[in-house]
Amino acid sequence: MSRTIQIALTIFWVLKFFHCKKYTTFDENKIARKTFSFHERANSLHQHEIIISIKQKNLTYLETYLKDVSNPDSINFRKWLTKEEIGQLISNPEATQAVTNYLAAEGVEMRWVSTHGEYLRASAPVHAWERILSTIFFRCEDRQFNNNIRHYYRAKEINVPISISNHVTAIFNTIQIPPEIYSSSYRSNSPMSKGKIPPFRSNMLVENGGMSSSSAANTVTVSFLNKLYSIPSNYGSPKITQSVVETADEYFSPKDLTQFQTKYNLPVQAAISKNNHNISDCSNVADSCGEGNLDIQYIMGIAQKTTSIYWYSPYQEEDPFLKWILDISDDPFPPLTNSISWGAVEQSISKSIMEAFNNAAMKLSNLGVTIVVSSGESASSFYCLCNQSSSSSDSPWSGTPWSGKGYFPSFPATSPYVTSVGATMGPEQGRPEVGCQSDAGGVITSGGGFSTYYPQPTWQKAAVDTYFSKLAASQIPSAGFNRKGRGIPDVSLIGVNYEFISAGALTYRFGTSCSAPVFAAMVSLLNSYLLTKNLPTVGFLNPMLYSNKSKSIFNDILVGNNKCCASTGSLSCCKSGFNAAVGWDPMTGWGSVNYTSFRSVFTSAVKLKGTSV
Fold first, then answer.
1. pTM of the prediction?
2. How far is residue 137 CA from its own chain's centroid?
3. pLDDT for the residue 12
4. How many Å apart are CA 305 and CA 404, to the nearest integer?
5. Cα–Cα distances in angstroms (integers) from residue 30 to residues 33, 149, 326, 351, in the given order
6. Which residues of the chain have pLDDT under 70?
7. Residue 487: beta bridge partners?
8. How far is CA 519 from CA 42, 118, 591, in A?
9. Which residues, 6+ apart, have CB-to-CB distance to 601 below 8 Å?
10. Cα–Cα distance between 527 and 542 in angstroms, integer?
11. Which of 147, 342, 372, 377 is nearest to 250 (CA)?
12. 210 contacts 558 by C-beta, under 8 angstroms
């Protein structure tokens, strides 16, 4: 620790001693990041913006309501709320006004207040925040993006004045270290042909179970997906909205989108660029276009004529997942289906961010909005951190403790209010569908496992219990994961050799980033179909996916494990990880989805009075 930081911290503790009775201390439980470092004390005149989370009312009631309306056996199934109804329930005007008045008296500039007053953005010089929060801010550097060093202003802890602390649940852009994020895909400039993909090992061969395609062409296209997953029509509706969520300077090219649509004889349709992060020519930023182009091209390729949004969430001063979910929550017309192909090690995410994300996702679910997230591409151990501790002491878990190493699930895929999507392989070569493994020719290994923070939802408990009860002795996973945590993924789709256009050239992609937007597009197609029947949108679909009513939807994946990854450039395998099995498993979820059955089951599950289905 540098002498400058030591002196600053000494001053901080002296101040805290004299003011200890006037403040409530806020801190965070998180693991350190090697690419994030604290440096000298921040410039006192630097204008710094923070986000204040106001204590919301009736969140427990909203959670109970969602359990009811997402339960296919309930008479209230899919009776979603309106934004106005949710606002009346959760708004806390007294708290919002008290915090606003306090900040105004301190000379703080109010930049934004959310529609229902649950979040405030406020700006002031660093010295003002140091006085208000009885803390010291430091200049920090984030080097996760190689040569692109990002600068942040963060404190070790903050002390919220007691006069407003009862009204506040979190203050962001203060003590939260930004996550080390990644997209869940791997790029290749040429297709992985049969000659290049290693043959499956003996334990990867199956005679029965899984899907295969009689029209295998080594690569995956929209027409291939239609045949594989029984999608009879790709025509959606402009009245239905869908989005792909991007961050980390990721662009998409409208020119590449048009070329993709033209090449594969798809309707030419433009995407709406939220926050204007599109670029005509990706040639000079090829490494910052692949994910964005893949996501928008396939969500629009599968769900055609659907209003499609490229929603860019800047990765600047605040957490990109938090920024996105706050922005979409405040949008008067949020997209009905949203696909996220990005993630971060869950243990590196601040507890306050995970809580805020979950509360917002829960409220969106009550609106009938669906959030789809890729489960990650680095097996059960993020980038094969085989020997790093993943015990409960490394997370903010408050339940039964556990110990061990090598398990690092991906956030926000672990949120119980999103549908997590894994990856499979095999049908592109005319072989049975199995879990995608880097050590079996899949290039990436589909992510899966159990949350270290979010408890296991009631709708998932029976599936998880069944999985563990049927494991052979050789399949029992090593210690280090949270047996009581939310399990991922929920479903899977093929995630290898996707053809798309980037920088005007045919490119190929592997990963759960491929499968997530395709499943999201399936949900959009279903929403379009439900619209023609005057039925409510799919919304929060997890309880339905885990019910006995949905068994016919899935192509059960029986083979595969997520113990190996190749994301570091060479194959690496861990003892940690999970095997595919009959029914749900933490490698492929329930398996892949037959769209025709998906549509039939989710349509017949709810019938409005006077409506024929």
1. 0.91
2. 30
3. 54
4. 49
5. 9, 22, 22, 8
6. 1-21, 28-32, 145-147, 184-217, 286, 378-384, 566-569, 607-613
7. 450
8. 45, 32, 12
9. 549, 550, 552, 553
10. 16
11. 342
12. yes
